[in-house]
Amino acid sequence: MRVLLLVVLVACGSSKPQQQQPMSNQVAARPVAPEPVSACGCTSERCREDSQPRWVKALVCSYRERMCACHDKACADGVNADFTRWMERMAKDAKPEAVEAFKEEDAKQVADDVTKYQECYTHVVGASDPTPP
To answer: Rounded to whole angstroms, how far apart are CA atoms 126 and 124?
Structure first.
């Protein structure tokens, strides 16, 4: 689990998106839709720029909520595949200085959510296993 937490913490950094060029001779841009917000907080890429630690905590929390809402192995495997893809993208974009942005309480919250995520996955997959232990 420490390796997973370390990957999450190190992978939090990424390059900033490129600035868009101002529009010339075009119609004014439409208003931006409100950010999607879950009970965990904003999980949109745009929130990543506001606060990397808060964004990572919101995403890990939302994956935990999705996993714990699963009632069958297919659901749990689907959430796990999504989570794994996200982790791989984070690891690919990793920047060592991103770890410095995390405070101890941020890291603890991520670790707690990952632990609960794993417990929920184990519970669902174990309940789906037809062979008794």
So the answer is: 5
pLDDT number for residue 129: 62
Task: Name the β-bridge partners of 38.
Answer: 41
Round to whole Å and give the CA distance between 90 and 10. 8
CB 90 within 8 A of CB 7: yes
Q: Please tell me the distance from the alpha carbon of residue 53 to that of residue 98, in angstroms, as a whole number.
A: 9
> What angle (nearest 5°) sits at the alpha carbon of residue 18, between those of residues 16 and 21?
150
* Contact assessment for residue 113 and residue 61, using Cβ atoms and an 8 Å cutoff: yes
pLDDT bin (cut points 50, 70, 90) of residue 101 is: confident
Strands 37-38 and 41-42: what pairing? antiparallel
User: Over the stretch 19-39, which tens digit does the pLDDT of each residue have?
Assistant: 455 555 555 555 544 444 567
| Cα separation, 121 vs 129, whole angstroms | 12
- Residue 45 φ/ψ, nearest 5 degrees: -60, -30
Sorted by where each begins, the domain ranges of the chain are 1-8+52-128
Residue 102 has phi, psi (to 5 degrees) of -85, 130
Is the pLDDT score of 64 beyond 70? yes
